[in-house]
Every structure is written in C-alpha cells, then in structure tokens.
Specification:
Layout (H helix, E strand, L loop, with lengths): L4 H13 L7 E7 L3 H13 L3 E7 L3 H8 L2 H4 L4 H9 L2 E6 L12 H24 L3 E6 L3 H6 L4 H11 L7 H19 L4 E6 L2 E6 L6 E3 L9 E4 L7 E5 L4 E3 L2 E3 L3 E5 L2 E6 L4 H8 L8 E7 L11 H4 L5 E7 L14 E7 L5 E4 L2 E5 L2 E2 L3
Parallel strand pairs: 1-2, 1-3, 3-4
Antiparallel strand pairs: 5-6, 5-17, 6-9, 7-8, 8-14, 9-12, 10-11, 12-13, 14-15, 15-16, 17-18, 18-19
Length: 368
C-alpha cells in the first residue's frame, strides 16, 4: 500500500519545494526510520545533478546526551552542524520519530542550555533562508510513533500524511503551484493593512502589524504546508486566548493553555496539563513572553490534531500563535531562544477583522 509514497514525495520536494539545481550541495537528514524517503531523495538529487550528503541518526542519542552530559557538554556548539548551515545550498530535514516521548522527562534547564547553544546556528539558518542563499525544507515520514501520537493506526496515519501532502492528487506539483497562487492573493490583500481583531470561542485578541509583512507558506520551507503568517508589532498584542487544541514541544504535551497579554507581553499564564513546563519556557528570556508570529492555517487536508507542529499549525480553519522568536521574513524583531507554536481551532465561530472589515469567519476567508 502506498508503494509510490517515497518517490512521489521526493519528486515534489526536489521539483517544487526546494528545486534542486545542477551543482547544488544538498544535505539530507533524518532518523533511520526515514530510510525509504532518504533513499528516494538521494536518488532524486543525483538525477537532478546535485551532490547529496546524508546524515542519518540513531534513536536515543539526544536522550543519552541530556541524561549524561554535563553543562559544558550540553553547551558545546556542533562544528559540523554549524558548517552545514553555513555551506549547504539545500537542507532537507525529515521528521520521522521513533519515540515521540523520548524527551518528555528531560530537565527543562538542560533543554535551555542546548537551546542557547543552538541560537547562533539558528540565526544563521534563518538569515540564509531570508536572503535566499539557503533552500530548506522540513518534511514528514510516517512512523508507528507518529501514528500513535496522532491516535491513529499506521495505515490510517499513512493515508492522512499522503492526503495532507497532496500526493493523492493526479499531479501533486501542479496542485501545490495552484495552492501557492491562492495564498499569494490573500497576502496581497493584507499588504498595507494595519490591525487585526480576533474573536470567537476562547479568544478575544487584537494586534497591530503595520510595516510588517504577511508571508504565504505554500510548501517551500515546510511540507506539507498551508498557512499565512506575520509578526505582530511586539508591544501591540492585547487580550486573551484559551487554546482549545493540545500542543507538544520537546516531547512534552501541554493542554488547556490560557494566556493573557498586556502591551504585547504575557502577564498571566496557566495550563490544565504541563503548566510547570509552560512557565519554565515563558521564563527562558525576555522575548519568550511575546508573540513572534500569528498565523492562519489553510491546509484542509490536515483535519486533525497530531501532536506534531509540522501538521498541527497547518490545520484548515485554525489559528496559531508562536511565543518567542520572530521570523525574519515578517520583519518582526522579537528575539528569543524559543519559538513555540500553539494552535486554536476557529471553525466554530472564530472571526478575524482586518482594519474593521470581516476577513475570516469560521475557517473561511471572505475575500476569495
């Protein structure tokens, strides 16, 4: 079943998401569970004249590091990873978890040390994507662990991923090209607008975005994709949200997260599950209590929560907000070690007004 999954996905990635050109230095990374896709991508890169390098990871190594390493070892900056981010033309990262809970009992303070050590490399990564010198795409490969986290059997989960990626379409590349065109019309409408007001079950929030950019995410960085996003003016966010979907960060699940903002900063925070972890992350640094991103999910092939941000932030009819670091493309300036996306379902009456005009109602754009 789905014998064409890996080559079909590799074709879309190397022809549409991150088109491989002759002479490109391409790094393909993922766990050993992603072997079929790693092989298919390797073959596709060679066929298009690129130079592929694979980095295949064994399960449990990150967990071992966090259990055994001292603070000095945790703060070590990987020189190979740094070199790859500086020199690669294309990086293809595969999400293929073998154990989604491997880091769930990790000391948050140890994670914070690694986050800080990785910050310079992440800044280089984001800057190169923004200036066009690095093409990067993050994609899934279905595993039993991911299926279990999604509360699905492996066959149902494979079908879900296949559909979310548009691989069920006769010509997936043409499908994503059309998807891109629709989203570009949305961000064009939002150009030169100034303010958003969001209301609905569990949410009453406003923010300004003048002089910021709305970006269409249509499959060239994440795959599958489907969102439009911006960076709110950092001190402009006002109101509250009670997120109605669960969230997972570093294998730790939070649910029932409630946040209240004043002058752009989280001043009250609670969670029905994972509250201690939430508060630890909010106190990582000054920027962790501000929003670096607000986005609207647009992929109706993603129709359920999975516990993977790659899918969950794309749910058609959803809204998500990221605490922490801004995305440079939006011209946001918030700095933080963290970027934590939390998702809110808007399909049951959620509305968004842009400069006082109703733009979005219950998951549907009203300007299309």
């Amino acid at each position: 079943m789905y014998e064409d999954f890996a080559p079909r996905l590799a074709k879309v990635i190397t022809e549409y998401s991150a088109p491989i050109r002759k002479g490109d230095f391409v790094v393909i990374s993922g766990s050993i569970a992603a072997a079929p896709l790693i092989e298919a991508l390797y073959q596709a890169v060679l066929q298009r004249g690129g130079y592929p390098l694979t980095m295949v990871y064994l399960p449990g190594l990150t967990e071992l590091r966090l259990r055994i390493a001292n603070n000095e070892q945790l703060a070590f900056e990987d020189p190979l990873a740094k070199l790859i981010v500086e020199k690669a033309d294309v990086i293809l990262d595969i999400e293929a978890p073998i154990n989604t809970k491997a880091l769930s009992d990790t000391d948050p303070a140890k994670l914070a040390i690694i986050q800080k050590a990785n910050s310079p490399r992440l800044e280089t990564h984001l800057a190169r994507i923004a200036d066009g010198s690095l093409r990067w795409c993050y994609m899934p490969w279905p595993t039993d662990a991911a299926a279990q986290q999604s509360e699905l059997g492996i066959h149902a989960y494979r079908e879900f991923v296949y559909r979310a990626c548009g691989l069920d379409r006769e010509d997936p590349v043409a499908y994503w090209q059309g998807f891109k065109e629709r989203q570009l019309r949305l961000v064009e409408y939002l150009k030169d607008k100034n303010e958003a007001r969001i209301e609905g079950p569990g949410i009453e929030l406003s923010f300004r975005f003048q002089d910021r950019v709305w970006v269409s995410a249509h499959g060239d960085l994440n795959f599958p994709d489907g969102e439009i996003f911006t960076g709110p003016v950092e001190d402009s966010v006002e109101g509250s949200v009670a997120f109605n979907l669960r969230s997972v960060l570093y294998g730790r699940e939070t649910a029932g997260v409630k946040l209240r903002f004043e002058s752009g900063r989280v001043v009250e925070a609670s969670a029905e599950k994972g509250q201690d972890f939430l508060l630890t992350q909010l106190d990582l640094d000054e920027g962790a209590r501000r929003l670096g991103e607000v986005a609207i999910g647009t992929n109706w092939g993603v129709d359920r929560i999975t516990g993977s941000t790659l899918f969950d932030e794309k749910i058609g009819g959803s809204l998500h907000m990221a605490l922490g670091r801004s995305i440079p493309e939006t011209l946001g300036v918030n700095q933080s070690q963290m970027h934590w996306d939390m998702v809110h379902d808007m399909r049951a009456g959620g509305k968004i007004w842009i400069d006082g005009v109703l733009f979005y109602d219950s998951g549907r754009f009203l300007i299309e």
